Amino acid sequence: MQAEFRSMTKKGILILFSALLLTACGEYQQLLKSRDPELKYQQALVYFNDEQYIKAQTLLDDVTSYYRGTDRSQDVLAYLARCHMGQKDYSAASEYYQAYIRNYPKGRYIIEARFQVGHCYYLDAPDARLDQTETKKGIEFFKQFVELYPESPYAEQAYKEMGELYDKLAEKEYLSARLYYNLGTYLGNNYLSAEIIAKNTLKDYPTNQYQEELNWLILQSKYQQMLNSIDIKKEDRARETEDEYYNFITEYPDSKHRNAAERIGKEAKKITHAL
């Protein structure tokens, strides 16, 4: 008897849930057919707050043309951007926020819009080995943002994410320098190219997180150029290597490369002290 009751109870719950689901679906379909734009807009906000972003976006798309040219239009545009953020479609969200900036440069959502464009580029930033055009765009938007709104609640996050985007550019340059280093003397002095790229990266991105690795690569490149140099240049290359060795251990005394750096220093000193 109890088993039969439990079975009937489970069936009742399933029937009730199905009925509620059908009712909810029916209500949404009725909304889509409705000719009342205000009803659609208000219900879109309800769906948005419930994180039902696709339904909210669909209803907002339906009322976009109706509200065009009115004050409500900027609300619709801002919420469409937010819906795409909720769906993690950062490219589309960025387009909507940029449309908002163009149409409402002094609108009530302008601070959010300007920050979110940079944030979208940050979230969509490609792997460091790929083209970094979008990363650079994100940096430019963040730079504009912190200049315009230095006291904004978003400012701290903007600085943080901008720094990470700069690190991505530095990483790309570091990988390029490492590639040249690995090519060695193939079709030329690639060690010199690696050294130049590493130095330029340190100059262009002085606070990047790859500073130690870039300096280590410069020391390695100097050392390899010393080993591969002709006799007439070996002394100068050895002195440059020795100088770079001292610079490295002074700047990074606890580096994981310390032992390898010491070996390079000793090799350079054998040449400079023998002369």
Q: What fraction, in percent, of the residue positions are helical?
A: over 70%
CATH topology heading of the domain at 12-124 = Serine Threonine Protein Phosphatase 5, Tetratricopeptide repeat
Unreliable stretches (pLDDT < 50, length at least 5) are 11-23
Biggest β-sheet: count, sense, barrel?
Answer: none
Number of helices: 12
Helix-strand makeup class: mainly alpha
Span between termini: 104 Å
> For this structure, what is the CATH class of the domain at 12-124?
Mainly Alpha
Shape: rod-shaped
Order of helices and strands: HHHHHHHHHHHH
What would CATH call the homologous superfamily of the domain at 12-124?
Tetratricopeptide repeat domain
* Radius of gyration, CA atoms, in whole angstroms: 30 Å
Give the overall pLDDT as a whole number: 91
Under the CATH scheme, the architecture of the domain at 12-124 is Alpha Horseshoe
What portion of residues belong to β-strands?
under 5%
Tally of extended strands? 0
